[in-house]
């Protein structure tokens, strides 16, 4: 029996070189100036939390080149991508949706969704996303859950392929869930998913994460943003 990706990741903990870990780790040369970190903490300690969160979101989405997120959509910050995925899983369960999940993908995704009682269908990732729209249109799941770029395959969508999938989801009223936790290792920051999502008229949830890129002793933040029709439900479950 093949070990899970989590089991492989655990084997690497404490090793000198660990290419199995999906989280950012500082090497001795990359440790930040701790006095600067302390000054950030002291500033945040006496600031209004809402102002600190807004400053973070503005910086994050500017770096991601998704300038259409904050003016158009509500964003909730979670302490990890896994926590955001649990919120998404509860939404999917509450709405009674079956989910087409990209497969293979990192094993905590199917585990979290299954534990929430969400029925799963595997969307095969064979490195050719141009065929995903046809596959989805023929099966019409309640939701389509994509990891872009996918972990561990690295598969990602072009702007044209993404637009095509949005048309399929809008036509068949399929909820789109996008896990963009690895976006900063891809071309996603060269085109605007937020604008396409805004204009497509689809129901959607997008999970973001700093933990794959800028973890500080594994401290991280995971913004979750959504279409306006889901805003109240996301707020309540969060």
Write the layout of secondary structure elements.
Layout: H1 5-12, H2 34-45, H3 49-63, H4 69-72, E1 74-78, H5 81-94, E2 99-103, H6 108-115, E3 120-124, H7 132-139, E4 143-147, H8 159-172, E5 175-179, H9 193-200, E6 204-207, E7 222-226, H10 231-237
Helix pairs in contact: 5-6, 7-8, 8-9
Structural classification? alpha/beta
Helical content band:
40-55%
How much of the sequence lies in strands comes to: 5-15%
Mean pLDDT: 92
Principal-axes shape call: globular
Tally of strands: 7
Outline the low-pLDDT stretches: none
Give the strand order of the largest sheet, numbering strands 1, 2, ... along the chain: 1-7-6-5-4-2-3
Condensed summary:
With 238 residues, this protein is of the alpha/beta class. The chain has ten helices and seven strands. 41% of the residues lie in helices and 14% in strands.
């Amino acid at each position: 029996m093949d070990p899970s990706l989590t089991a492989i990741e655990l084997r690497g903990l404490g090793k000198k070189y660990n290419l199995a870990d999906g989280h950012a780790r500082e090497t001795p040369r990359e440790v930040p100036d701790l006095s600067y970190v302390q000054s950030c903490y002291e500033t945040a300690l006496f600031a209004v939390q809402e102002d600190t969160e807004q400053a973070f979101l503005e910086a994050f989405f500017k770096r991601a080149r998704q300038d259409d997120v904050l003016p158009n959509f509500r964003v909730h910050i979670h302490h990890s991508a896994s926590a955001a995925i649990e919120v998404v899983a509860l939404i999917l369960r509450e709405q009674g949706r079956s989910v087409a999940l990209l497969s293979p993908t990192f094993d905590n995704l199917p585990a979290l969704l299954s534990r929430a009682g969400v029925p799963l269908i595997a969307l095969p990732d064979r490195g050719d996303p141009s065929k995903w729209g046809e596959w989805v249109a023929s099966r019409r799941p309640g939701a389509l859950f994509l990891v872009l770029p996918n972990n561990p395959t690295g598969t990602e969508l072009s702007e044209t392929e993404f637009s095509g999938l949005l048309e399929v989801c809008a036509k068949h009223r399929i909820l789109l869930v996008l896990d963009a936790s690895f976006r900063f290792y891809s071309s996603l920051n060269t085109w605007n998913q937020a604008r396409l999502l805004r204009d497509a008229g689809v129901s959607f949830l997008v999970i973001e994460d700093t933990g794959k890129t800028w973890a500080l002793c594994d401290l991280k933040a995971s913004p979750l943003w959504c279409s306006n029709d889901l805003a109240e439900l996301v707020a309540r479950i969060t």
